[in-house]
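Re: How this chain folds, sequence and tokenised backbone to follow

Filed under: protein folding, tokenised backbone structure, sequence and structure records.

Contents: The amino acid chain and a row of whole-number tokens, matched residue for residue.

Body of memo: The sequence and its backbone structure tokens, given next.
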Amino acid sequence: MDVFGSIVYNYYGSTETGLNTVATPRDLLRSPGTIGRLIAGHDIRITNSRGRRVRKGKVGELFIRGPMVVEGYNDASGGDGQRDGYFSVGDLGWVDRRGCYHLAGRKRDVIISGGVNVYPAEVERVLDAHPLVLESAVVGIPDETWGERVCAVVVPRSGDGGELIGVLDAHCREYLSSPKRPRRIEVCESLPRNPTGKVVKAELVRWLVGA
């Protein structure tokens, strides 16, 4: 928007649900990062692990109802994404006081460290905002004390990133609370991706555990 002006629109949807929200340039200016407001004919419930709606501003799982939602679907674990006519693809999010929705990450990617839910997308946004970082990925690896330990893998914009780890540790201390800070930061040339371009975090976990 800084380059082209207020002409950017943001949409949210999936193969299983169709498009569900749209963010206008005005929405994006007033609620940065939003996926927008509901498209007419659609509804989203944001629920906790017990299926109860959460308050505005609280993160929960997005369950969607609309004319394009599939009739049935089983995820990789055999669970059903259907609930009372609503459907979930496993995305987590929250709604602000203006009624704009925001994504927090994927349910399967949530890191539980010391009983605290850590959403990798939040940590990645902080890391990616640093001018020396091209991109990052945050995962949890097993930890005997905390259950899982927050770890980050970053790709530097230039150079070998020799001093980057210390710089990013200080950066995270400034912008993240203690449970969300990566306890380990590794530097690599590129992140592993599948044919559609998504980062394969399972490969990063195997690499970090075996390293």
